[in-house]
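Changelog-adjacent note: as of this version, every example in the card shows the full chain rather than a window. The one below runs 128 residues end to end.
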Amino acid sequence: MVAPFLPTAADTQAAQAQLERLRQQAGSLPRHLSEFLEDLLRQLAAGKAIQIVTLDPEMTTQQAADLLNVSRPYVVKLVEAGELPHRKVGPRRRLYLEDVLAYKARLDAQQQEALQALADDLQEMGLD
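Full-length structure tokens:
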């Protein structure tokens, strides 16, 4: 794993300039690449640290746990409950990156719905 990149003030200014150039030339790149680069440059321009990692199509339960920001035993429980598809390689479990990312997207969506419901309740009660 690569250490996070901590931008300096000069990096932040350079990222802002690059972001503007990217927006002007957005049509010359595939949409998903343009969106990725724009998000990356936006984060740098805001002075945030970034970290880019490469992921194999298959991962261990520990790698899945790291990606989901949960414990490995919790991932094992998800696998045993059928929440996360896997395959066995000897005694080890291998999870597909695509399945782990889909699970993470479902969790994020549920979390967003719960936050929206809480915000709606607070607004309804006049506590916003």
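Structural remarks: The longest helix spans residues 97-124.
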